[in-house]
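Subject: Sanity check before I submit

Could someone independently write out the structure tokens for this chain? I want to compare against mine line by line before I put it in a report. The sequence has 160 residues.
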Amino acid sequence: MILNINDQAPEFTAKTDGDGEISLKDLRGQMVVLYFYPKDDTSGCTQEALDFTEHLKEFEKLNTKIIGVSKDSVKKHDKFKAKYDLPLTLISDEEVKICEAYGVYVEKSMYGKKYMGIERTTLLINDSGKIIEIWRKVKVKDHVSNVLKTIQELDKTIAA
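---
Independent answer below. Compare away.
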């Protein structure tokens, strides 16, 4: 399934780090940055999480919740968060149901070998659950700054 801007974000309830649970519907009233990444504790995924952490206060000032999603287990998420002191909420999607619902579990290719994996993707979901921006095939460098800038511009438009 390919999601587009203005689509309603697929609902989910999922396990998070720290044996928590989160539902998208419980986040109504605030913006949500839902970012999908391949694997905890790899260079690109670690950098992306650190970049979101570095700008977390700015996102919070804009009433925006940051949530990372990968198919790593809750236990792996807990180790990843502890190792890098990450304050982000990380969803464990071991059965890839959320990834499939958001269209980010795709066929990939490395050195000629094809396999299924998570395509690094970020979605911005507004306070009523509608997708208002999508970044596909994300390159980590400057990505978080671009997401923040988009939200800041939206905030100025809303305030005007």
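---
OP: Matches mine. For the report I'm noting this point. The chain has a mean pLDDT of 92.
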